[in-house]
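Appendix B: a complete holo record

For completeness, this appendix reproduces one full record from the ligand-bound portion of the collection. The bound molecule is deoxycytidine diphosphate. The inputs are the chain sequence and the ligand SMILES; the output is the full three-dimensional arrangement of the complex, encoded as structure tokens. No fields have been trimmed.
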Amino acid sequence: MERAAVIVAIDGPSGTGKSSTSKAVATQLGLRYLDTGAQYRAITWWMVNNGIDMDDPSAIAAVAGKPEIVSGTDPSAPSITVDGTDVAGPIRTQEVTSKVSAVSAVPEVRTRITGLQRSIAAGAENGIVVEGRDIGTTVLPDADLKIFLTASPEARAARRNGELKGADVNATREALLKRDAADSSRKTSPLAKADDAVEVDTSDLTLQQVIECVVTLVEEKRAGK
Ligand SMILES: Nc1ncnc2c1ncn2[C@@H]1O[C@H](COP(=O)(O)OP(=O)(O)O)[C@@H](O)[C@H]1O
Ligand SMILES: Nc1ccn([C@H]2C[C@H](O)[C@@H](COP(=O)(O)OP(=O)(O)O)O2)c(=O)n1
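The structure of the chain with deoxycytidine diphosphate bound, as generated:
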């Protein structure tokens, strides 16, 4: 018998392990994978590149429909392009990271990107793992399984710092907390745990333990438990 497509939503703040967990779970279970943060970073990269005034939400809103953003959903080789240009590297710069919360707070940006996300999820035949901030609450409220990852600010900053060579861990922690506050307090679909999400604190878990926990939860759902 054909298995029905399974939709898994994984939300949480930065550095909780969303991307690493989602990619591994999708690979293990033969599902597609979508990094929605990369889409918000991509539209932000386009705004920076086109000299849009980041302090003016109406200027951001006016051009929200312009860039063509395409996400590749193979979990072993995820990709992202803007108007045909590969932006996987440039969307991770400090400049984009510092501006992405302002751009992603603009309702017109969210409507545009949410539409892309829903059509990608609907087209995933076997199912998909979608990670972000508002997937369980807003983008895919009917997801089969919702996970909300958390971790202490110290654990998250230490993990992020491991990726940024020579960065100061206290500065990294402050920047993370600032972005969390902006993402959690915006009016349109803020970072939040859905009422029916399973919360997993990853502070004292290895990545492997988190992956196993999520795979087990998906398998239980599929078995109808
Ligand atoms: N449970 C964990 N324990 C230790 N390191 C982890 C764990 N989960 C993720 N990491 C590492 O922390 C960093 C951030 O993880 P990532 O998956 O990018 O988080 P997010 O997508 O939530 O920002 C990566 O370098 C990753 O390998
Ligand atoms: N579903 C989402 C995903 C990300 N965002 C915004 C808010 C986040 O600070 C940025 C960047 O997300 P991303 O997941 O790439 O962030 P990290 O790499 O985990 O630090 O995008 C969002 O508003 N909604």
